[in-house]
Amino acid sequence: MLSNAILISLAIMSAAAALNMLRLLKGPDLPDRILALDTLYINALAIIILLGLYLASDLFFEAALIIAVMGFVGTVAVAKHLLRGDIIE
């Protein structure tokens, strides 16, 4: 029963990631594209965690943690670049 719920969740998160990819490619403004990229890595985190649950592997959780940290740093760097025009002061 739990494996069916995980598979349904994987399908829903994959659809959400595909829609985020569409917004990333089609976005009218740069902030829309940045927000789509931020949401895309969060969806990727959810997919990786769901795969870790489905396959019962701890390695996926470590990969999700690394992706979360790198996504946060990337979002902060892009936001800083948009505000000031320079990442490192």
Q: Top keywords for this entry?
A:
flat, 89 residues
Structure overview:
The chain has 89 residues and is mainly alpha-helical. The chain has one domain. Helix content is 87%, strand content 0%. The termini are far apart.
Structural class: mainly alpha
Figure out the total of helices: 3
The percent of residues in helical segments reads over 70%
**Shape, please?**
flat
Low-confidence parts lasting 5 or more residues at pLDDT below 50? Answer: none
Summarize the structure.
By secondary structure, the protein is mainly α. It has three helices and no strands.
Q: What is the topological layout?
A:
Layout: H1 2-26, H2 30-55, H3 59-84
